[in-house]
Every structure is written in C-alpha cells, then in structure tokens.
Amino acid sequence: MTGNGAPASISPAEALSRLDLLGLDELLDSDDRLLRDSIRKFADDQLRPNIAEWFEAGTLPARDLALEFGKLGMLGMHLDGYGCPGAKPSQYALACIEVEAVDSGLRSLVSVQGSLAMYSIYAYGSEEQKQHWLPRMATGEAIGCFGLTESDAGSDPGSMRTRARRDGNGENADWILHGSKMWITNGSIADVAVVWARTEEGISGFLVERGTPGFTATDVHHKISLRASITSELSFDEVRLPASAQLPLARGLRAPLGALTEARFGIVNGAVGAARDALASTLAYASSRVQFGKPISSFQLTQRKLAELAVTVQNMQLVARRLSELKDAHRIEPHQISYGKFNNVRAALEVCREARSILGGSGITTEYPVLRHAVNLETVYTYEGTHEVHTLVLGEKLTGISAYR
C-alpha cells in the first residue's frame, strides 16, 4: 500500500506472477524453468525493447535474430540429431510462448524455420539432404521457408497449380518447376525453399536453393498485421532442379499437412504468450492509471474484465499443457491440434480486444503491446488452417462426416 492507502502500482513482472491463479508454474521442473527463464530473459533484453520500432517500420533483422535463436537452441528445437537439441515438445512449447509474448512475427520466424522447413527435410528428406541443411539451419546460419500456399489455393492446397515435370526419362532426370507461392514467411531471405508441387505421381516436395535461375522472391508490403515478419511471394519460371532436389519420402498431400501439424502445435502455445503479455501489460497499466482519484483497477467493472480475462488465459494454458503432454507421449492426433488452434487463437483475440478497452486511448499506440498482439493474431487466426477449417476438422471428428470434401 502507498502512504495514502491506495494500492501500489504493479510492475510487469508482478503482473505476470499474479496471472498464474492456478499455480501452473509449479508444474515446471527445474530444467523446464531454466529453459523458460533463459528465453524470457533474452526476449526481455534483446527483443522487447526493439519490437515496437520493428513493427512500426515494417522490418525485422531476421538473419541476425536467427543466429541468436540458434545460439539458444530454438531452431529445430524438438528434432533429434544433425545439430538439433532434441528437446521435448513441451519445452519447445515453452519457447513459443515466450517468443510470441513479444510478437507473433518472431514466433513465426522460429516455427517456420524449425517446424515447417527443417521438419520437412528431417521427416521426408534423404540423408544427404539432412546432412547438408539441418546443421546449418539449427544454428541459424541457413534460413528456410515453406512454400505451400498459393493465391488460389489456400484452405484447399490440393488444388495447387505449381507443377513439376521431369525433363527426360528415369529417376535421375532433372525436374522443371513452374508456378508461384504466396504469403511465405522468410521467403526473400531463405537460403532454401521447401516447395510443394503437383507431379504426375502426385504432390511432391522439392528443395529450391536461393539463386537458382528462374527462382525469385518478392516481399509483400503494406501489411497491417505481422509487420515484424518477412512475407514474400515465390515465383518459379521453368526452374531446373536436379533429381536430388526432390524430397524422396514426401509423397502426396499428407507430407505438407504433416509439417503443418508440427507448426500448429507452436501456434497453440504461442497464442498463450500473446494473450498473457497483453493481459499482464493491461493489469500493470490499470494499477497505475488514476481516474476519479483512484486507480482504475479498483473499479468493479475493470476487476470483472480482468478476472474474466485471467480465467480465459489460464484455460488457454491448460489446453496447451494437455496437448504438450500428449505430444511428449507421442499420442497427439491432428484433431487435437485443431482443437488447440481453434480454442487458443480465438480466445487470445478476445483477450486482446477486451484488454485494449481497459487501456482506453493508450491502447491504440505501440507504447503498449495489446493492439499489436491483436492485429497479429488476426493473421494467426487465418494462417496454417483458417478458423473455419479447424471448425470442420472438429465437426468431422464429432459426426464422422467430412463437410469440405
């Protein structure tokens, strides 16, 4: 209490502690807590002081950050061998929470690198491809991107128009790749693009290196959301690839969808970080913002909002923790990932929108992270499976009827 009997202002760290109403932090073992705290410190020291400027400028020092993330062991964190840490999925979840607590664009950099590009090579690549790319990608020396979405093939990737054909006979014949991909994170800075294309044998994956003749990447500008993230269009104009560029184990649409399942796990947890950060900053603000002679945190309507938002965030954390347990046990199923994305991203958006109302006019500036998180989450709500698609995944699981095929 202060000298006049009013409650003292709450620091951001204290606000974060108060939000753990169920004591979930106690469930972390010493290794998990050390990992979480080291990433949180890096985020607070190196990322948080710069993120508003990066967001406003619509830029990101992605190559420098990739090297820093590599030093922390966050790239391909849950993969084994090839220079990857082999961490538990639940530990990767903690990393995603702390990074997205700063900005969704930063978590996108980490998850596209590790859970989409690296995972595709790890799961579907040849031994030579793994040895060539994964160690350098784990350190951040090499950056990857994942080319699946097209302008006319978003929720229905099976309708993709990008094609690859053999130039000659036999398994050693070159491939000719033609088409384009849209909304590709890391696209213009990637050293290697994992590209999915239609072939006579079905959907196949290819590794396309930067500088390959006919391959160009153009950044998407004028974004309102995910401004601290590099988003590109990839174009392939009769790109010639050697037979060794094909991912040998990637056959059919199940391959890219398998990688997306990996990445969505990061989204489920990252959304927790965004919502938690928005609410923690709002709680700290409400304790220091004085109206009618007292902090607005003392008003009943504000306390009701804070209580409801805190319960929502804790419920998100419970969903994420349960899915982490299932993934650690190698028992997680795609519909459960859809459950997590359906619930957590929607809830995170609701938290940010209501939290912004507590901040009043201050909430529309980049001085506070709440509205930045909200506009970022509008993209997260859509990418890697729209909210509507995940709704139908759950509907199919419940009814046994596929509504979108």
Written overview of the protein:
It is elongated, with a radius of gyration of 22 Å. It has helices at 12-18, 30-57, 62-71, 89-100, 104-124, 127-139, 254-288, 300-328, 334-359, 370-382, 387-399, and strands at residues 80-81, 84-85, 144-147, 163-167, 174-185, 192-199, 202-209, 215-219, 231-241, 246-251, 290-291, 294-295. It is 51% helix and 17% strand. Helix 8 (300-328) runs antiparallel to helix 9. It has three domains: 12-139, Butyryl-Coa Dehydrogenase, subunit A, domain 1 (Orthogonal Bundle), CATH 1.10.540.10; 144-251, Butyryl-CoA Dehydrogenase, subunit A, domain 2; 255-399, Up-down Bundle (Butyryl-CoA Dehydrogenase, subunit A, domain 3). The chain has eleven helices and twelve strands. The chain has a four-stranded mixed sheet with strand order 3-6-7-10. Strands 4-5-9-8 form a four-stranded antiparallel sheet, with helices on one face. The protein has 405 residues and is of the alpha+beta class. Belongs to the acyl-CoA dehydrogenase family. Its cofactor is FAD.
List the helices and strands and how they pair.
Elements: H1 12-18, H2 30-57, H3 62-71, E1 80-81, E2 84-85, H4 89-100, H5 104-124, H6 127-139, E3 144-147, E4 163-167, E5 174-185, E6 192-199, E7 202-209, E8 215-219, E9 231-241, E10 246-251, H7 254-288, E11 290-291, E12 294-295, H8 300-328, H9 334-359, H10 370-382, H11 387-399
Helix pairs in contact: 1-7, 2-4, 4-5, 4-7, 5-6, 5-7, 7-8, 7-9, 7-10, 8-9, 9-10, 9-11
